[in-house]
Amino acid sequence: EAGVVQSPRYKIIEKKQPVAFWCNPISGHNTLYWYLQNLGQGPELLIRYENEEAVDDSQLPKDRFSAERLKGVDSTLKIQPAELGDSAVYLCASSPRTSGPYNEQFFGPGTRLTVL
Amino acid sequence: GNSVTQMEGPVTLSEEAFLTINCTYTATGYPSLFWYVQYPGEGLQLLLKATKADDKGSNKGFEATYRKETTSFHLEKGSVQVSDSAVYFCALHTNAGGTSYGKLTFGQGTILTVHP
């Protein structure tokens, strides 16, 4: 079974340019997450989707970040315009729907963004 | 709010040495606790978990016990191998409702390097 797929793996852009990251979750997983991981830090949630609905986007900087999950499958995270401080790893994760209190999250390899 | 604190790294050990990585947490409700591992160039993988007090999670020779009285979840392994070199993240998940549901809160990560 394929894991969570992310592309590109690496991206280098100049500040003020737009950038987009793509994520394809594990087949059948209803929940999709985008995390931000700064160097030397643990991941921090940006947004969580249940199917195509963003149910927790409280940590997403909405002035420059946007996300979508059309048709409730793959998702795109966009930054426009990018700033120097956006240099980080952007992780995508997905989890299945279960009856238990916790749904295990499966992570992709991440996209490493460098803003010059 | 929820938070996770890990011991300062990096940690450097010789093969077959004993490993301890400390983790303490602050949370509302009744959290589930996790250790994730991130090998170079790969995504985060769930290493082990414990969902209630006094539970012991174990996998691949690693163990951690959920200690509610000390709010800790220390990771241990009796004999590390070179292949254990990675970054280890302690994390919690709480079902207290509101925006915390469905979100993992991570520690800052501990880099482990094992020499032959």
What does this structure look like?
The complex is a heterodimer of chains A (116) and B (116). Chain A has 116 residues and is mainly β. Helix content of chain A is 0%, strand content 47%. Chain A has no helices and 11 strands. Chain A has strands at residues 5-7, 10-13, 19-24, 31-37, 44-50, 53-56, 65-68, 75-79, 88-95, 106-107, 111-115. The model of chain A has no long low-confidence stretch (mean pLDDT 92). Chain B has strands spanning 3-6, 11-14, 19-21, 23-26, 32-38, 44-50, 56-59, 62-65, 75-77, 86-93, 104-106, 110-115. Chain A binds chain B through residues 3-4, 31, 33, 40-45, 48, 55-56, 58, 91, 93, 101-110, and chain B through 4, 32, 36, 41-46, 51, 89, 91, 93, 95, 99, 102-104, 106-109.
- Indicate the proportion of strand residues of chain A: over 45%
Regions with little confidence, pLDDT below 50 for 5+ residues of chain B: none
The CA-CA distance between the termini of chain A, in Å, is 37 Å
Can you count the beta strands of chain B?
A: 12
- Percent strand of chain B equals over 45%
Order of helices and strands of chain A: EEEEEEEEEEE
Category from helices, strands and their pairing of chain B: mainly beta
The helix content of chain A is under 10%
What is the molecular shape of chain B?
globular
From the N-terminal CA to the C-terminal CA of chain B, the straight-line distance is 41 Å
Task: Kindly report the average pLDDT value of chain A.
Answer: 92
| Count of individual helical segments of chain A | 0
The portion of residues assigned to helices of chain B is: under 10%
Q: How many DSSP H or I helices of chain B?
A: 0
Rg for CA atoms of chain A? 14 Å
